[in-house]
Design goal:
79% helix, mainly alpha, Rhopdopsin 7-helix transmembrane proteins, 234 residues
């Protein structure tokens, strides 16, 4: 029964549901934004930008992948509309990630991290483009991976630090929950990226294809729940 759902339309359905979930999260925080005082809106605006960017980029990638333009894993040798949509996906996705990190580093970490996450998000976006446009893609790829893991792993100890230093119990729990959601979102992004094929090559591919949208959806929901609690104290 499960296999009948997943094949052949179950996978794209799951990915379009991910887009819808991020859209719902955007609307949720927009409604929260409208009820907040102006002095506390900046942090929430970053969350709205992040969730909206994820929704748009995910939709673009879904169209590229499932509407006869490209495939699940299209590596660096692509052209035309396939390439244009892939680069648009990267640009919008990393813009959203950079904005989330910017408001986190400015309003939560009080600039103690010197915007390192924001800067590396922008650098990672540039490397993602270079993999497809530069002649030396094999040379760029290791630098892309290094920057990606800085952006992906460095926030986890920062979230743990925020939990440890929070004086409010519900906020402490929210930051721990945030870590859980972030890890699920990270796993989804990892399994979804064409570059991750070099990592997931020896894994069961149907598992990779169906776990990644579920992980992204779960991560998004858990992070939204955590942030809806955290924003009250920022």
């Amino acid at each position: 029964m499960v296999e009948e759902f997943l094949d052949p339309i179950g996978e794209p359905i799951l990915w379009f549901l991910v887009s819808i979930i991020f859209g719902i999260i955007s609307v949720y925080f927009i409604l929260k934004f409208r009820k907040m005082e102006k002095g506390t809106r900046s942090f929430i605006s970053g969350i709205i930008f992040f969730s909206t960017a994820f929704m748009v980029s995910r939709t673009i990638e879904n169209i590229r992948r499932y509407c006869g333009i490209g495939g699940y894993y299209d590596l660096f040798d692509i052209t035309g509309l396939n390439l244009a949509l892939r680069l648009a996906y990267y640009t919008i996705l990393w813009a959203g990630i950079a904005m989330l990190y910017f408001v986190f580093e400015k309003y939560v970490m009080n600039q103690k991290t010197k915007y390192i996450l924001t800067i590396f998000s922008i650098i990672t976006c540039a490397f993602s483009w270079a993999q497809y446009l530069a002649q030396g893609a094999a040379f760029v790829f290791p630098m892309y991976v290094a920057c990606f893991f800085i952006v992906a792993l460095f926030p986890i100890p920062l979230f743990a630090y925020c939990s440890k230093t929070s004086i409010n119990k519900s906020q402490q729990i929210a930051w721990i929950t945030m870590i859980i959601g972030f890890i699920f979102l990270l796993l989804g992004v990892l399994g979804d990226s064409p570059e991750a094929f070099f990592i997931t090559l020896n894994l069961d591919q149907p598992f990779v294809h169906y776990f990644t949208p579920i992980a992204e959806a779960a991560g998004a929901i858990v992070m939204a729940y955590s942030l809806s609690t955290i924003y009250k104290y920022v």
